[in-house]
TrEMBL record:
It is found in: Cytoplasm. The keyword Aminoacyl-tRNA synthetase does not apply. The gene is whiB. Binds 1 [4Fe-4S] cluster per subunit. Following nitrosylation of the [4Fe-4S] cluster binds 1 [4Fe-8(NO)] cluster per subunit. It comes from the Bacteria. The lineage of its organism: Bacteria, Bacillati, Actinomycetota, Actinomycetes, Streptosporangiales. This is Transcriptional regulator WhiB. Its cofactor is [4Fe-4S] cluster. It comes from Actinomadura monticuli.
């Protein structure tokens, strides 16, 4: 633990978040239909879009694996996608395998 972390006067990125003091229900939407849920997410994301600490917020949410709510302008599903793509190793193309009967004899001959 860093000694600076105990300093109550030290600013944190959350001190600059424009959602600070906003209704938490907006950022943790629970909709009864897909349309209502989408409207709540869109409203929260609109606030995030103007936030000076959106990148810090998203970085934090990805780092801790925040499973709920709108953080850094992203939904839980969007964050799962970002974590999957960031953690995934680079994909290499698989070799083409020709099995007998998959192609005509002339295609086999031209491939060889």
């Amino acid at each position: 633990m860093h000694s600076n972390e105990n300093n109550e006067n030290e600013e944190h990125w959350t001190d600059h978040a424009i959602c600070r003091g906003a209704d938490p229900d907006l950022f943790f939407p629970i909709g009864y239909s897909a349309e209502v849920l989408q409207e709540q997410q869109d409203a929260a994301k609109a606030i995030c879009a103007n936030c000076p600490v959106i990148a810090d917020c998203l970085t934090w949410a990805l780092k801790v694996g925040e499973p709920d709510g709108i953080w850094g302008g992203t939904t839980p599903e969007e964050r799962r996608y970002l974590r999957r793509t960031a953690d995934a190793p680079a994909r290499k193309p698989l070799p083409v395998i020709v099995v007998r009967g998959d192609a005509s004899e002339s295609e086999h001959a031209s491939a060889a």
